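Good morning,

Attaching, inline, the backbone tokens for the sequence recovery test we're adding to the shared suite. The designed sequence is right after.
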């Protein structure tokens, strides 16, 4: 299955892992996947390892039940985040799970994450928060370890671009690797800006109409930040 995937798609997945590390979205933990370009009932994801170290030979193929195909390598425990979102959302081509730092205050308080600038209009009026206790009780380690929990998270995400995970992190989706990476980076950026702005007074958030219009506009220019982030990775700069 890996051999049949487009080489550029695999290379983009590898680069995306490194970009997300470089931009502070993931560290030793977190993962990104992409739907297989020739088999929509499959997705590509790294074996269980730190994203900064991922190279092409580390990429595995999984089915939409989260089973690793044609390999004995160990995949991420939380691969069910990816499998169940792909199953529920045919429009999604890439999924990112991270614990990006500025997001965490919004998953442990009642403060809502809302779009504060035009770069993050994709957040929309409401960013859902997934509560794992509702399906797993209070003794779970908060990890999405099986299909049932993955489905519950996918249901919480619904049609949105981002869902927060109480006590854990977030999941971000896109119609391409480039869009998912853009959204993950600017979700973290929006969270930082919102935290910085709150002590100064009432925040003028984007309206629903502004959020929609800015998201559509930025989607036309995804190549610009992608090329910059890719160049930074390739040249080892920050």
């Amino acid at each position: 299955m890996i051999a049949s995937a487009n080489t550029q798609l695999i290379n983009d997945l590898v680069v995306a892992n490194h970009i997300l590390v470089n931009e502070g979205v993931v560290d030793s933990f977190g993962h990104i996947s992409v739907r297989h370009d020739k088999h929509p009932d499959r997705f590509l994801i790294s074996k269980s390892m730190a994203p900064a170290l991922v190279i092409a030979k580390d990429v595995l193929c999984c089915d939409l039940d989260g089973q690793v195909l044609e390999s004995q390598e160990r995949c991420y425990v939380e691969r069910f985040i990816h499998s169940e979102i792909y199953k529920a959302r045919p429009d999604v081509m890439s999924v990112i799970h991270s614990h990006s730092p500025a997001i965490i205050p919004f998953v442990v308080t009642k403060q809502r994450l809302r779009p504060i600038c035009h770069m993050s209009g994709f957040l929309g009026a409401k960013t859902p928060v997934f509560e794992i206790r509702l399906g797993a009780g209070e003794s779970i380690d908060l990890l999405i370890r099986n299909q049932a929990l993955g489905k519950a998270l996918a249901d919480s995400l619904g049609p949105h671009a981002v869902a927060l995970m109480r006590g854990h992190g977030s999941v971000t989706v896109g119609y391409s690797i480039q869009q998912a990476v853009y959204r993950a980076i600017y979700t973290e950026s929006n969270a930082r800006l919102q935290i910085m702005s709150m002590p100064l007074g009432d925040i003028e958030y984007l309206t629903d109409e502004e959020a929609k219009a800015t998201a559509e506009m930025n989607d036309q220019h995804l190549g610009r930040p992608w090329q910059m982030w890719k160049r930074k990775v390739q040249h080892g700069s920050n």
